[in-house]
Design a protein that fits this description.
This protein is of the alpha+beta class. Helices cover about 30% and strands about 20% of the residues. It has a six-stranded antiparallel beta sheet with strand order 3-4-8-7-6-5. The longest helix is centred in the first third of the chain and has 24 residues, at about 15-40.
Length: about 170
């Protein structure tokens, strides 16, 4: 028998039906693992605002649109009034009641901060080419994470949400 056709000793010890099924089973498991890792949404940390900030966030949650730039709202499970998401993978995520970003106290405090609907957003480009926008000068901090490729301009989803933020989270 040529060398390239020999069965490894570990497999040769197994009965023939098991050997025949080994490759398809391994291949199926690999495909399932890959598909599961690609389609599984990342865990979203749920903020825990208190007092008035929690009330503002609940009001904001009720006012958020069911559709954002053509992406349907698909909130993570379990649902929370402090987290909203649109699209599937990748998806735009809004978290209300987040802590003030530490970067606002450092060298990034003067970074580009666009304004939409009278809401100022501090912008940060992340390592995976997505963007994180955090509202500033509001009674509760609102964070919107926009993955690369969701919109032609990463600020578009934030601009679309700014009216709801302005109306429900006072400055």
């Amino acid at each position: 028998m040529p060398t390239e056709l020999r069965v490894p000793r570990a497999l040769a010890a197994l009965p023939a039906p098991v050997r025949w099924l080994a490759a398809p089973v391994v291949l199926t498991c690999a495909v399932v693992a890959l598909l599961g890792s690609w389609s599984a949404p990342a865990d979203i940390a749920v903020p825990a605002p208190t007092g008035k900030a929690a009330d503002y966030c609940r009001n904001l949650a009720a006012a958020l649109p069911q559709d954002l730039l053509g992406h349907a709202r698909k909130d993570p499970t379990p649902s929370s009034p402090f987290v909203a998401a649109w699209g599937s993978s990748p998806r735009t995520v809004l978290r209300c009641g987040v802590d003030r970003p530490e970067e606002l106290d450092g060298e990034h405090a003067g970074d580009w901060s666009p304004v939409a609907e009278e809401v100022t957003w501090w912008a940060q480009k992340l390592d995976d080419d997505s963007y994180r926008f955090v509202s500033t000068m509001r009674k509760a901090y609102v964070e919107v994470t926009v993955p690369r490729g969701v919109a032609s301009n990463p600020f578009d989803p934030v601009a679309a949400l700014s009216g709801a933020v302005r109306a429900n989270v006072p400055g």
